[in-house]
Amino acid sequence: MPFAGITMIMILGFFGLAYSFYPYVVPDQMTIDEAASAPESLLIILAGTLFVLPVIIGYSIFAYRVFGGKAAELRYD
Q1: Residue in 11, 12, 13, 33 with CA at minimum distance from that of residue 22
Q2: Exposure b/e, 27-59, CB count within 10 A at least 16 = b
Q3: Which contiguous run of DSSP H or E holds residue 30?
């Protein structure tokens, strides 16, 4: 329960800070629209993400199945 409470405080603090700066990325100098990349570049990044993210998730599941449960309890005899 304490871990969940601290996690929520950190998340709420982060979102509160982000909300207080909105719409600026750099306070009083650069807005989100000015900092955004060109739409063409963002489409290339999206295409790469749509390809790579399932591969990463699939490999993580595969590695978990291969190595899961293989470790034994550490004993000092």
Answers
A1: 33
A2: eeeeeeeeeeeeeeeeeeeeeeeeeeeeeeeee
A3: strand 30-31
Rounded CA-CA distance 53/50 in Å is 6
Domain boundaries, given as residue ranges, for the chain? 1-32, 37-71
Q: Which two tokens stand for residue 6?
A: 């601290």
Q: What is the pLDDT of residues 50-62, one digit of tens each?
A: 999 999 999 999 9
Nearest to 65 by CA among 57, 74, 75, 73: 57
Question: 7-50 pLDDT, tens per residue?
Answer: 999 999 999 998 999 999 888 899 988 998 899 999 999 999 99
pTM flag (> 0.85): no
